[in-house]
Amino acid sequence: MLGYLISSFFNIIASLLSVVSIVFVAYSFFTVGRQWNKGNNQDLFNLLVVSGAFLILVRIIDIVIKSSAYFFKPTSSIFLVLIAIGVPAIIYVISTSAGEKIYEDGYFNKLSDTEFLKSEIMAAFSQFMKEIEKISSKVSKEVNSSNTAHKKASNQNVGAGAYKYTEDAGDFHGMLKENRSLLLFIILNIITCGFYWYYFVHTVSREVNIACAGDGEQTSGLLKYIILSILTCGIYSLYWDYALANRLAANGPRYGYTIQENGSTYLLWVLLGGWVCGLGFFVARNITIKNLNKICRGYNQQNPIF
């Protein structure tokens, strides 16, 4: 009985990962199809490689878990792997045959640098998220008419590469995103099967470290967040949000804001409010987003790009 339950659990996990990987690849193809030759082709092609590699890894896990089942049929896995490999290969061949250069000379030698590799992966993923945000914004009805022009300017700066890592963190000259909303946060997480959360952690940590620079604190990036969350069975993710809320509250006066909600407020809503149908988490997340928007708005006002 116990063996059956364990087997069923792993089968469910494998199936969920399969769905996520297929959705990721499908949206990546969609993004590349819309943005090719309109933006950064290198980042777009890297998006194909990253999503394809993730799908292949998931298919391997799926085969290992389900290979003993009598209903297991590897045909679909083989077909998906061929698509994940074939589509990027075809695009690369066609592009190079047409005289286009996707990668600069010496690019692959730089991949041995962990920071460079991480920056390229996140830059590719940002192309994916920007396309998702465009789609979801048509669904969302939250529009603030008083700062529409400012929002457009901010989005254009994001599109120009404000979210791409560079070797020198001091070369940031863009606008920080100040119009995040809980509704959009929920929609994007649903559309991306939870992937948006990791993009949220990546962008928030980067922007908070920019806006709050000099306060003696450092908000952990995505890689550290994932590793420590796994090692601590999710406890670190709570600490990350707790520390983030404290840092936002501490830096409020720096930009002329009095922020009452701190890390303790966040934990109270998550741990106690979670008993009310889980609504406490959304209240806590809304508090974080609201205070984050204040800090980013204050930074943008003190550091205009025009």
From TrEMBL:
Limits of the DUF4234 domain: 180-249
Can you tell which superkingdom this protein's organism belongs to? Bacteria
Q: Provide the protein name.
A: DUF4234 domain-containing protein
InterPro entries per record: DUF4234
Q: Membrane-spanning residues where?
A: 12-32, 44-65, 77-94, 182-199, 225-245, 266-284
* Pfam families attached to this UniProt entry: DUF4234
Organism from which the protein derives = Finegoldia magna
Record's keyword terms, sorted: Membrane, Transmembrane, Transmembrane helix
